[in-house]
Q: What sequence folds into this?
């Protein structure tokens, strides 16, 4: 889950450039979107009208670029949107905070993170699983508070 959140955070950093470059104005309700926009943004439909103007601007910018993306990039956008809407508000907040901290890094460190993420994505599912298991084995054992008290 942490890897997925990290990927979403990196993606959010990139996507926020759309938001920064787009003037802010009242954004349309779901009913006012074009058929193409509705199709592209379908995973967001249940929450669309509750989104802030900034968030709608971000997603509309992505929808505008979507037709020009290669099919594999379009599929990636759809997967990420579907994951995004499944996150709890706290998880979304954590992703945004992670994206914010990544954006504040110097460009060379951000590029280093992108390179590491690209390396990770090139791994097979088996290698990713092994890497995750190895990482879990390095976690310290739970402290006394995590051990349930014996039942009397």
A:
């Amino acid at each position: 889950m942490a890897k997925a959140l990290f990927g979403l955070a990196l993606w959010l950093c990139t996507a926020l450039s759309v938001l920064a470059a787009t003037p802010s104005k009242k954004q349309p309700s779901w009913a006012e979107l074009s058929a193409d926009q509705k199709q592209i943004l379908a995973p967001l439909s249940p929450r669309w009208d509750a989104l802030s103007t900034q968030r709608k601007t971000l997603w509309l910018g992505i929808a505008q670029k979507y037709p020009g993306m290669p099919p594999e990039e379009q599929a990636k956008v759809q997967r990420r949107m579907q994951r995004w809407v499944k996150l709890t508000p706290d998880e979304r907040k954590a992703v945004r905070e992670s994206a914010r901290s990544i954006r504040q890094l110097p460009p060379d460190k951000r590029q280093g993170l992108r390179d590491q993420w690209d390396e990770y994505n090139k791994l097979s599912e088996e290698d990713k699983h092994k890497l995750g298991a190895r990482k879990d084995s390095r976690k310290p054992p739970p402290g006394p508070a995590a051990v349930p008290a014996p039942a009397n």
